[in-house]
Amino acid sequence: MNANTSRLFILFVLALLMAASRAHVFDHFSPPDASWAVFFIAGFHLRGWGRWAFPALMALAVGVDWWVITGQGIDFWNHYCVSAAYWFLVPAYAAMWAGGAWLRRRYAGARWDALGRLAFAFVLSVLACHLLAQGSFYWLSDSVTDPTLAGWWKNYTDWLAPYLVTAGVYVSIAAALQVAAERIAPMAGRGGRTAH
Question: Each residue of 98-114: pLDDT tens digit?
Answer without folding.
Answer: 999 999 998 877 788 88
